[in-house]
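Q: Can I borrow your eye for a moment on a structure tokenisation matter? Would you mind producing a protein record, from residues through to fold? Write it directly below this note and I will take it from there.
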Amino acid sequence: MKDRYLRIVSIAGVLSVLIVVLMGALVTNTGSAYGCGNNWPLCNGQVIPTADKQQTWIEFSHRIVSGIASILTVIQAIWIWIQLKKVKEIRFLAIASVFFIFLQAFLGAAAVVWGQSSPVLALHFGVSLLSFASMLLIAFIVFEETLPRAHRIVPPIHRGMRWNFILLSVYSYILIYSGAFVRHTESTLGCTDFPLCNGRLFPEPLVSKAGIQYLHRVLAFIILVWLIITLIVCLKRYKNIPSLSIVLFISLIFIFLQSVSGIIIIKSNMALYSLILHALFVTCFFGLLMILLMLGLRKTNG
């Protein structure tokens, strides 16, 4: 019975952090970052705000959800530390989940109280993704260890493919950071058409909002091709390990959806729904990629 409750907590933890990430995107894209003024943890000097402004309630709701996610993260970390202490990855992930959820909260609070530069604000989204990924990996392991018929997946991965997963993960984080940087430098509409950039193959001048947007497009195209090649190689070399190809295929779907939502952002002149979908797809993609990386790093004799 306690295994069942642990699975429920792990799912709740993943969903709560995902909601935090999406609400963070909502805060950014509705201009609600200062909905509670420069106050933290209070909101405009109040425990519960009385203002009727939409931005205030969006920011306040984001803080409430972040608090709930933090509590769930700590409870889960303590629980798995005790119950699953023999699992190799679990203690690292328990510490990482708590570290990233509180680092995320600190960066958010710092941005409200002291203000932050665009690079630091972009980093905030990157930390949020690491927080989500750590929770997703924990949930994956919890289900591996507690479901009656489940087993620990330890695919025999060659060194070259293992390094491919590592480099793919690092590159993906850079890509995601570049996307957050695009948003926080207000470069989303630096290119107002697609696939050209303001009617040109290359933006002019290159060092501009159009250049920032164009660089993000190039990075996104590279990872799309990279994933397709990796999937083809896995289908040929690892036919006996379907889990790798399945995770890769779903990851490819999400990166494709993210690309489509990016085009919709431009075509719809930054419609809110397209911005939220863009954040959702990239968050799911990164989480799946971290599962792939974890499987790739597992030793066969482990």
Observations:
- The CA atoms of residues 116 and 232 lie 42 Å apart.
- The chain has a mean pLDDT of 87.
- Residues 155-302 form one domain.
